[in-house]
């Protein structure tokens, strides 16, 4: 094989692997959806007489003074309900003509290697700047801030490490990689193979997944001082760290930070992750998994405390009121858009079937990351051909 053929073979194998391991089965099997582009200018269509839907209406924002922000880096940590948040950014970016940082195919920007500017075209080549980076990447603050405008806001989401680890273990079938069953963690006498600490699935998926996505080197996972130092740095990088277990409050804080309106932050998957699994961990299992994921545990403790302070500062009454409004908006969109849901064997919702193929907002709300990414890439290449590397 010559070098070129080898590269093609490598790319195809990696894509297939990625498909097998890193996506929902449904993502891979489904052909891309033909998104219609008819009513881009008016994504909010539930009640045309309700002025609160209008993006230009300042009353619907948090206060009359703030100006919507749209230069954003979102670190899409794995298995943290981050696809729901990504859906928000993809939608906002598309409806507001923002320019995305996009991989030439698939949905990863680097990873497992840290993000590098060289992964995407230099913004000078399309004489504008990027606005939104929301695809899987490992945080590399320096490279990202050199690529993005200076007023870019960094955002991410975290999830309780024990929940994340369990969901990741089953989703990516790590029992095969690590030759261990999930129940082994419960057994005080069972041996945890070294592989658990050392092997990551295709280099990407393993213990301390959140800290890995935040850019930390696995060799530092056992060093508490380095972990603490790293968390301090993250604290100064991120303007908001959302918490998956507190999704609605997270969405409201996101809305305030970005000065967006309720329709911008509607998502359908809010509660899809709250399913109770059949795999019960007892105190032994919990302790072992927390020890294995000590860096994530420290990250989670730091940022949930901070989150709690933010929520208190926001005000309880106001939070309650805003969550109610968000629920009402979400319900309206759900009724408008969703005909039925497709569930997997564990009765978790894996996708929504829309009743409104003609409605772009419904299409965005019900489609998955891969088909939306294909769509926005195609649309962006039309407007800014040199903003995406092409094969
Ligand atoms: C909304 O903002 C515009 C300027 O962007 C201003 O002229 C107008 O008075 C504002 N309306 C309200 C209701 O605050
Ligand atoms: C952004 O950074 C550049 C160079 O670092 C600087 O020249 C420019 O004034 C900055 N813009 C703002 C709005 O801070
Ligand atoms: C957890 O369950 C295992 C059996 O599955 C048992 O051997 C172990 O003692 C239990 N640990 C605790 C703390 O209950
Ligand atoms: C909703 O789903 C049902 C059953 O699958 C189907 O018969 C119907 O045509 C769908 N309605 C719309 C509006 O798509």
Automatic annotation (TrEMBL):
Residues 49-64 have a biased composition (Low complexity). Residues 1-28 form the signal peptide. The lineage of its organism: Eukaryota, Metazoa, Ecdysozoa, Arthropoda, Chelicerata. GO terms for biological process: glycolipid biosynthetic process. Keywords: Glycoprotein, Golgi apparatus, Membrane, Signal, Signal-anchor, Transferase, Transmembrane, Transmembrane helix. Residues 39-65 are annotated as: Disordered. It comes from the Eukaryota. Residues 39-48 have a biased composition (Polar residues). Pfam families: Gal-3-0_sulfotr (PF06990). It is found in: Golgi apparatus membrane. One of its GO terms (molecular function) is galactosylceramide sulfotransferase activity. Coiled coil: none annotated. This is Galactose-3-O-sulfotransferase. Its main location: Golgi. GO terms for cellular component: Golgi membrane. Gene3D superfamilies: P-loop containing nucleotide triphosphate hydrolases (3.40.50.300). The keyword Acyltransferase does not apply. Belongs to the galactose-3-O-sulfotransferase family. It is a single-pass type II membrane protein.
């Amino acid at each position: 094989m010559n070098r070129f053929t080898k590269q093609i073979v490598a790319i195809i194998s990696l894509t297939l692997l990625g498909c097998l391991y890193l996506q929902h089965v449904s993502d891979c099997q489904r052909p891309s959806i033909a998104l219609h582009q008819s009513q881009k200018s008016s994504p909010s269509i539930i009640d045309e007489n309700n002025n609160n839907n209008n993006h230009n209406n300042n009353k619907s924002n948090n206060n009359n003074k703030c100006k919507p922000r749209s230069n954003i880096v979102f670190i899409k940590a794995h298995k943290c309900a981050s696809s729901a948040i990504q859906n928000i950014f993809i939608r906002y970016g598309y409806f507001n003509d923002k320019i995305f940082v996009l991989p030439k195919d698939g949905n990863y920007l680097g990873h497992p290697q840290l993000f590098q500017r060289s992964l995407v075209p230099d913004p000078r080549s399309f004489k504008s700047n990027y606005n939104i980076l929301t695809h899987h990447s490992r945080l590399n603050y320096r490279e990202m801030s050199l690529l993005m405008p200076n007023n870019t806001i960094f955002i991410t989401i975290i999830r309780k490490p024990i929940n994340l680890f369990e969901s990741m273990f089953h989703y990516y079938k790590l029992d095969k990689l690590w030759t261990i069953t999930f129940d082994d963690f419960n057994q005080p006498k069972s041996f945890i193979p070294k592989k658990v600490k050392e092997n990551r699935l295709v280099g990407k998926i393993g213990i301390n997944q959140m800290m890995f996505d935040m850019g930390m080197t696995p060799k530092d996972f056992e060093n508490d001082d380095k972990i603490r130092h790293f968390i301090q740095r993250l604290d100064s990088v991120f303007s908001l760290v959302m918490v998956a277990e507190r999704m609605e409050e997270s969405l409201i804080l996101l809305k305030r930070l970005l000065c967006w309106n309720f329709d911008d932050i509607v998502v359908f998957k809010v509660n899809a992750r709250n399913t109770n699994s059949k795999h019960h961990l007892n105190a032994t299992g919990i302790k072992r998994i927390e020890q294995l994921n000590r860096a994530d545990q420290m990250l989670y403790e730091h940022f949930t405390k901070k989150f709690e302070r933010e929520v208190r500062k926001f005000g309880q009454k106001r939070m309650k009121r805003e969550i109610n409004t968000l629920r009402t908006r979400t319900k309206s969109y759900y009724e408008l858009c969703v005909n039925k849901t497709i569930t997997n064997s564990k009765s978790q919702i894996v996708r929504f079937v829309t009743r409104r193929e003609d409605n772009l907002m419904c299409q965005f709300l019900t489609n998955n990351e891969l088909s939306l990414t294909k769509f926005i890439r195609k649309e962006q290449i039309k407007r800014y051909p040199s903003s995406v590397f092409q094969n």
